[in-house]
Amino acid sequence: MSRISGNPTLGTEQVYGLTLRVARWRAGAPGVPLLFLNGIGADIGAAAPLLAQIHDREVWTLDMPGVGGSPDALLPYGAPTMAAVVMEIADRFGQKQVDLAGFSWGGAMAQQVAVQFPGRVRRLVLMATTPTVTAPGIGWAALLDDDMLASGLKLPTATPLGLAYQTMAMAGWTSAAMLPQLKIPVLILMGERDGVVPACHGQAIADLVDGALLEVVPGSHLFPFTHAADTAARISAFLDSPQAAQAAA
Known about the structure:
By secondary structure, this protein is α/β, with parallel strands linked by helices.
């Protein structure tokens, strides 16, 4: 029996020389699927308690190279390359349009995907993330996150090389010049006690994206996992909201 919440379908995709483990909950369900991109060093199992609670649509995610069930990459990769990788997987699944959510490191990557592939992302959810990765290794402080210590969550699950390549991919990255181009509904969720990526980073994103919704929610950096039910409900309400549908029209 799978140890992963919700018993997703697990598979492997070979893309651009990378071997990536992929998990799909409710594969093939009608409607726009949700792609989730995780934080640095975090695997499918860490995200599963959140993703298993987002119902009535397909939800899928993947382990980045050197994380969880994905072996190390042979060479470093950049944010544009990884954005192309995840959208290639979406193509293989027959998904011409996705809703996209990202947490921390994955939230930065989600911004890259959204601006790199205009028209492919219908709605965007950004959690505990930033428009500018000024410090290599952002996310390491999550090891001392209050919620994580209280919950017993174990992070990261990556190899040293996997962590190094994830760090290198986003070091010095910024979306500040790109975000004003976004013309899709965006929801930004930030933890009120987040000492890793404080809520002011979410405000910076909201200031750059016309019409973006910013919500400061209970919890610290790992609130999507430690407050999974509440976070899943907020994501689902946003994806299903008529207001977001009108903004996307």
